[in-house]
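Section 5.1 Outputs to date
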Amino acid sequence: MPLASERTPMKIAVAGGTGTVGAHVVDALRTRGHEPVVLARSTGIDLLDGADLAAALDGVEVVIDASGTSARSAAESIAFFSRTTTTLLAAETAAGIRHHVALSIVSMERSPNPYYAGKLAQEALIEQSPVPWTILRATQFHELAKQMFATAKVGPLRVAPRMRTQPIAAREVGEHLVTLALAPPSGRATELAGPRIEELADMVRAYARAIGSRAWIPRVSLPGDTAHALRDGSLLPEGAAILGEQTFSEWLAEVAPRS
């Protein structure tokens, strides 16, 4: 049941409020009449050291954490998420924040991905915190196709990694995080996934064609246990999940003209 705050404007802080999902969280909050407080380096807030964090949380009732890192190793990812989450939760405790909402990843314990190691550490810290919490695990985003097209390269050749995924629009994830933030803390929320299973290689190729690229983009099976978990569907939801509405092809038709 939504709280009275669904109707009463309030201040809600968004960690990572300039990122892929965080920017949509900020937009959704404004659309619903709430005041977002963006916690990001670009706004003068560094979650690694907590400078000015207490002042930023003045008057804030709920915090949504959609932050991320470009760390490439498990040690770096664990260090980042452990430090930022500890800093954020300590400040929230001192400020009397009544609800902490965090974005996480579906089935990530089934993959040895270095990034996921940090997210698992983050979840553990949240669960041990005195701040009432909700964790939303979501699948990969439609935007992953754009990211892979830009970064998956072998020399001058672009490649399309094999992966079974059930992608969802980042916008829908951001909107769902706001819905959870405006409701009472619920612990582990029902997972969120896209409307259908896709092959990442097909998504990357479709994105390339949609933006006018006619480059040959071969499918590749990346080596290692992490890549195997991507190919065999380990990151798909295991049980019941809330499904988004926008398909990848619909998302592509919407964003490709702007890319």
